[in-house]
Amino acid sequence: MHCLSVSRRAADRLRSGHLWVYRSDLASAQDVAPGSLVSLLDPRGVPLGTALYSSSSQIAARLVSRTPGLTRAQYLADLRTRIDAAIELRRQMAPISPGNNAHRILFSEADDVPGIVADRYNDLVLLQLLTQGTAQDDVRTVVVEALCAASSGDALTIWERPDPRIREMEELPAPRPGPLYSSLAEPPSATVFTLNHLGFHYDAAAGQKTGAFLDQRLNYAAAARAVASAGAARAAGGNGPRALDVCTYQGGFALHLARVCTRVTGVDASRSALEAAERNLILNQTIDPALAERCAVEWMEADAFEYLRHLDQVAHTGSAPHPSAAELFDAIVLDPPAFAKSKRAAEGALRGYKELNLRALRLLAAGGTLITHSCSHHISLEAFTAVVAAAAADAGRRVQILHRRAAAPDHPEILTLPETAYLKCLICRVEG
Questions:
Q1: What angle do CA 224, 125, 257 make, to 5 degrees?
Q2: What span, in angstroms and rounded, lies between the C-alpha atoms of 210 and 175?
Q3: Domains of the chain, with CATH numbers?
Q4: What is the pLDDT of residue 206?
Q5: Which residues are catalytic?
Q6: 171 or 238: whose pLDDT is higher?
Q7: Residue 232 has what pLDDT?
Q8: Could you give the 3-state DSSP secondary structure of residue 135?
């Protein structure tokens, strides 16, 4: 086994509980095979543990054990134990039920299985092997065996679908066609899953992402409760609460708000995402015909920034000192994609968050609800909250934070891994 010496900075980070070594912190990595296990040493030669090595990623090594010199067989045995523990955690924290039959099974470093992510959508499991050391047949075998053992004989089909961007960075081969496993003679690639008793289509062979937003499951429900508790009496147009869901993707927040509002508009720049949102809407109107009677839902293909600027101009242009109630919303959801995918992008991301939240605050009726998010792990909760506060000051609105929320518990956060605390959710009441 190769031994790699890391910088003092990297050694300190590993000793504090982190699991990554960046390429800039490696002294040398000559003749190390891609995806192999390596022993990490601090500058004095003291062993730090065993890691999976990548020859192409900026994350050059991911620690998999504090034990140095771990063999491949030992790594695979540890991996099976950790997968079993992760599955048991989901049984306790996010149990499968008729109303919620989707959750994240494996969450990479957060479950101590670096480079492995698995999501369950009803009877389908989507597996992502995201590093050179995990995109290997022996790892596939361990994961599939563990998932099959946990299925208790239920119908199960496992598809591998790596994230395209990460696959390119890690220089990984394309996955083989067909499922890794299926208990059925004709393996399905599509299914319908449930979140909070709402139905959603999922197709393993389609979509702009590798999965749905399972991390928002509890935030969907909390947003609907907050808007409902604000009361129809505060409806801006006098016809019941009106909501705007910005960056709706496949309609997660929009469909939850449709249960408590009379009008909902979902906005997204992706036509394919909105087509999926419409299919989800039709599915739920079929399940609950009263939904169509209670709430009118429309989809708008538009850039989030441009659309909010347009609404702001319409609402605040004219001779009237205040916007017409018909031009305001009782609830606005902001759930944009990650603006900061690197530390260098953080400053620009904060400007983007400021812009979106400022426009939204100017478009909310008094007593309205703002549900705003950041999924950029480079933006801390404190920084995100400060941006929303600055937007409130500029908009001249009094904003109360009702709830600070994060990802659902099937996306656990590790105190020593700040990257796992990526999702921030603020549910606010807006006055003034």
A1: 10
A2: 14
A3: 2-69 (2.30.130.10), 73-188 (3.30.750.80), 214-431 (3.40.50.150)
A4: 76
A5: 375
A6: 171
A7: 47
A8: coil
